[in-house]
């Protein structure tokens, strides 16, 4: 009996020591708004909707392996608070495991959007974190981010880079992603290059498409209460004997005053060129005006008006799955 008590005590001490070297964090976001939306269907209906904007829950953790080495993991799942439904793929937002040390960090799994997206389009989407109906609808999320191995470098005097390679497995093409970020005080720069499977050529009018190449540059500068950012992205999609090319740009600005944030951004996608010939009416613009009131570090109230215009607006609105050309929204977001 005494021996059993001693063994149990030793096991308990061992468990305590192991837990002291590990950490697990539960985190998430609930982001809901009430919106008056203009849809892209033939009758141009306007509807009122309770809109979910990328609500999610996730678990992330690290284990100290000694010698400056850590095991790391993250799993993240999306859901809709308005209906309680889960996203079609459980843990579909992100799910990876890896190691972190003096070499940077290496991860294996599903990375979510590519490192190229985070280095360009996401970085300047400040008003609602590039979610919901006011998300950047002109950026094309090319390539494959599942079945991926990624290496992120250490920070070298403000510069960090990431290399991602996504295996096609049963798909059409492997995906190569190169991304870099540079931070120097108020100046923040980024760049991306993606060579991988195409996800949009068919929706934009190109048949037989198999491969997409994308490169882009981003800059953001903070000066006092003002923050201004911009990106330029160029896309080339290869089809059956012909190519599709287009460029997109976005400008964004934020002014902070106490707990208030005032946001303005505008983006444009040029006319699509197929085989070198511009397709009339294939360009589109997006304008968003927003206001955030930060009730705390985790909770904010917000309002925005966003609109897609131009003859190509319907195509871009349908690409992202919302089918919304314009929306006026009042919402609340809480991070935990």
Could you explain the architecture of this structure?
This protein is mainly β and 336 residues long. The chain has a single domain, classed as Porin (Beta Barrel). It has 3 helices and 20 strands. Strands 1-3-4-6-7-8-9-10-11-12-13-14-15-18-19-20 form a 16-stranded antiparallel beta barrel. Strand 10 (175-184) and strand 11 (187-197) form a beta hairpin.
| Percentage of residues in strands | over 45%
Task: Evaluate the radius of gyration.
Answer: 22 Å
Tally of strands: 20
Shape annotation: globular
Counting DSSP H or I runs of 4 or more residues, the number of helices is: 3
Enter the CATH topology name: Porin
Oligomeric state = single chain
What structural category characterises the helix and strand content? mainly beta
Order of helices and strands: HEEEEEEEHEEEEEEEEEEEEHE
The CATH superfamily appears as: Porin
Report the helical percentage.
under 10%
Poorly predicted runs are: 5-20
Q: What value does the average pLDDT take?
A: 92
Major beta-sheet overview? 16 strands, antiparallel, barrel
The CATH class, by name, is: Mainly Beta
CATH 2nd-level architecture: Beta Barrel
Total domain count: 1
Could you give the order of strands across the largest sheet?
1-3-4-6-7-8-9-10-11-12-13-14-15-18-19-20
């Amino acid at each position: 009996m005494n021996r059993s008590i001693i063994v149990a005590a030793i096991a308990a001490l061992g468990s305590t020591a192991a837990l002291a070297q590990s950490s697990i964090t539960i985190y998430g976001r609930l982001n809901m708004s009430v919106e008056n939306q203009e849809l892209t269907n033939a009758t141009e209906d306007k509807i009122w909707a309770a809109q979910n904007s990328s609500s999610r829950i996730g678990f992330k953790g690290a284990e100290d392996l000694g010698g400056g080495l850590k095991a790391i993991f993250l799993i993240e799942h999306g859901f809709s608070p308005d209906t309680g439904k889960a996203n079609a793929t459980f843990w579909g937002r992100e799910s990876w495991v890896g190691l972190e040390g003096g070499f940077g960090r290496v991860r294996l799994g599903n990375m979510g959007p590519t490192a190229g997206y985070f280095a360009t389009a996401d970085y300047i989407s400040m008003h609602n974190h590039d979610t919901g109906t006011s998300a950047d609808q002109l950026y094309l999320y090319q390539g494959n981010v599942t079945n991926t191995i990624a290496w992120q470098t250490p920070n070298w005097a403000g510069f960090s880079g990431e290399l991602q390679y996504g295996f096609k497995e049963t798909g059409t093409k492997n995906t190569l992603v190169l991304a870099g970020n540079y931070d120097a005080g108020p100046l923040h720069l980024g760049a991306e290059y993606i060579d991988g499977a195409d996800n949009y050529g068919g929706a934009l009018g190109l048949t037989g498409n198999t491969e997409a190449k994308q490169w882009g540059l981003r800059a953001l500068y903070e000066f006092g209460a003002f923050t201004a950012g911009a990106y330029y992205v160029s896309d080339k999609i290869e089809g059956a004997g012909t190519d599709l090319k287009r460029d997109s740009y976005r400008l964004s600005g934020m002014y902070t005053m106490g707990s208030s944030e005032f946001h303005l951004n505008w983006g444009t996608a040029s006319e699509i060129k197929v085989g070198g010939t511009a397709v009339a009416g294939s360009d589109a613009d997006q304008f968003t005006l927003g206001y955030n009131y930060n009730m705390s570090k985790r909770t904010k109230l917000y309002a925005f008006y966003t609109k897609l215009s131009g003859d190509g607006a319907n195509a871009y609105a349908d690409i992202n799955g919302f089918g919304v050309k314009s929306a006026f929204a009042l919402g609340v977001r809480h991070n935990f």
